[in-house]
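Why should sequence recovery work at all? Because a backbone constrains its sequence more than one might expect. Tight turns favour small or flexible residues, buried strands favour hydrophobic ones, and helices have their own preferences. The token representation captures these environments compactly. In the example below, the structure is given first.
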């Protein structure tokens, strides 16, 4: 590690600890005769000059007792206790503090519930996940601000390396979620995972099965929300983890060839779409739509000697797969899922409009079906335009611009996005003295169709006239 980086780290650390709260903590610890340290993510992020708002404090003694006494000294602060884990948390001046007694931990093979014993700071550092997360800053009077870094985490931070402090097989086997955390940190910080740790993830991949799907998805979502999620997903794939918790995604990988005709690798294509979309949006669910847009391809794949490879209906089949995937991964089965289903179902629509001569009615129908999600659909679809042929991409993107312009034009004219029938069902009943029944629905649909096809404008007067005409034709009223 270079001298300049050492100096910079020192400056970052001093700046992080400049807050008076650290002095208060230090004085209180001194008074109690207890030694305390800031540890983990806060230290790491502070050295990266990006301190967070969550601060983990290791107490050589009882974390719970210390937090209780400190909270009452600071004022009437509500403390949350997690006795099973020996931790206590409170919020103070917008910062989340978590106190834990220094621990020695060992894990039983089939559970990630640790068996905890009291320990020293060093014991506590030994049981941490990565060298860059095991660094501690002393808050004690005699060496306030000293970095305690037994595994050279500072060097790894400088060399941009994720590495376990102990034998990786032990660290990962103790808590297999750490395999995903390694990939998450590597993706988020743009670091490399050290070779042995990487191999160990592959070797221990089956251990992931003891982790709940909620916790897996939590990590996966964090990877998806990074700047370049493809990097993390490629690592999930190459370590064999993806196959374990998300085989449908893994199934996109591979190229088949018949009569010398190949289809594209849909796994890498999907990752390209995801990265392209991620430049434009931080919306997790829109990014999920990118991940799942072609998920129906492996099951709909066919080879026809005349036409080559086809994936007919993969949009429909894919949208039907969303529910089971969300359910298994414990993702929310609410309007977020419905949004993803809708985008997967409609993802081919804008591109079809780029290829054909665009009719107003086709655009109107797409706006009608996408509703308020039309802008997201357009973003997804634009990101879906990938090809090795730059000219082709350029041409498509240019045509896409026209589709956007058309959408704007038609929206201004017809306001179809949140279509409300211009004639209500009760008005149809009254006009033709009907009783409620299927005829009412048929008339309403016919009016909607006439608007979408452009036969009449989306206006009440035109719709009313059209309704009367329909009634006459059907001999109603
Ligand atoms: N930790 C660990 N093993 C885990 C989870 C956490 O060793 N499976 C340790 C690490 O030292 C980590 C600290 O607990 O730094 C706090 O964990 P967490 O809050 O989950 O992560 P942070 O490192 O703070 O990072 P972020 O908040 O960005 O997720």
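From this structural description, the recovered sequence reads:
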């Amino acid at each position: 590690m270079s001298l300049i980086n050492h100096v910079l780290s020192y400056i970052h650390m001093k700046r992080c600890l400049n807050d008076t709260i650290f002095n208060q903590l230090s004085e209180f610890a001194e008074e109690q005769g207890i030694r305390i340290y800031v540890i983990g993510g806060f230290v790491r992020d502070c050295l990266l000059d990006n301190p967070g708002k969550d601060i983990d404090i290791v107490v050589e003694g009882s974390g719970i007792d210390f937090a209780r006494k400190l909270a009452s000294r600071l004022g009437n602060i509500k403390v949350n206790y997690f006795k099973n884990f020996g931790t206590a948390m409170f919020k103070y001046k917008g910062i989340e503090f978590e106190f834990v007694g220094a621990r020695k931990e060992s894990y039983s093979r089939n559970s990630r519930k640790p068996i905890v014993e009291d320990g020293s700071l060093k014991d506590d550092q030994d049981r941490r996940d990565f060298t860059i997360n095991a660094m501690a800053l002393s808050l004690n009077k005699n060496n306030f601000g000293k970095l305690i870094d037994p595994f050279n985490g500072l060097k790894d931070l400088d060399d941009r390396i994720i590495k376990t402090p102990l034998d990786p097989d032990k660290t990962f086997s103790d808590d297999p979620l750490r395999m995903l955390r390694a990939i998450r940190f590597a993706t988020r910080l743009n670091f490399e995972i050290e070779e042995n740790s990487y191999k160990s993830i592959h070797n221990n991949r089956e251990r992931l099965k003891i982790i709940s799907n909620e916790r897996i998805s939590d990590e996966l979502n964090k990877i998806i929300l990074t700047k370049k999620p493809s990097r993390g997903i490629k690592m999930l794939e190459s370590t064999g983890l993806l196959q374990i918790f998300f085989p449908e995604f893994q199934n996109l990988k591979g190229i088949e060839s018949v009569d010398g005709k190949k289809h594209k690798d849909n796994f890498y294509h999907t990752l390209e779409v995801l990265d392209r979309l991620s430049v434009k949006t931080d919306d997790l669910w829109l990014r999920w739509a990118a991940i799942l847009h072609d998920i129906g391809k492996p099951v709909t794949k066919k080879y026809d000697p005349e036409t080559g490879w086809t994936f007919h209906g993969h949009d429909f089949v894919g949208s039907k797969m969303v529910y089971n995937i969300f359910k298994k991964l414990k993702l929310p089965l609410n309007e977020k899922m419905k949004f993803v289903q809708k985008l997967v179902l409609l993802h081919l629509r804008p591109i079809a409009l780029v290829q054909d001569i665009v009719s107003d009615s086709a655009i109107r129908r797409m706006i009608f079906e996408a509703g308020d999600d039309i802008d997201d659909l357009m973003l997804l679809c634009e990101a879906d335009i990938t090809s090795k042929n730059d000219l082709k991409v350029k041409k498509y993107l240019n045509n896409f611009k026209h589709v956007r312009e058309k959408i704007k034009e038609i929206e201004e004219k017809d306001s179809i996005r949140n279509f409300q029938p211009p004639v209500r069902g009760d008005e149809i009943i009254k006009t033709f003295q009907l009783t409620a029944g299927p005829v009412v629905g048929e008339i309403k649909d016919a009016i909607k169709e006439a608007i979408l096809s452009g036969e009449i404008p989306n206006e009440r007067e035109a719709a009313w006239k059209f309704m009367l005409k329909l009634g006459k034709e059907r001999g109603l009223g």
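A few observations help interpret the result. The two ends are 89 Å apart (CA to CA).
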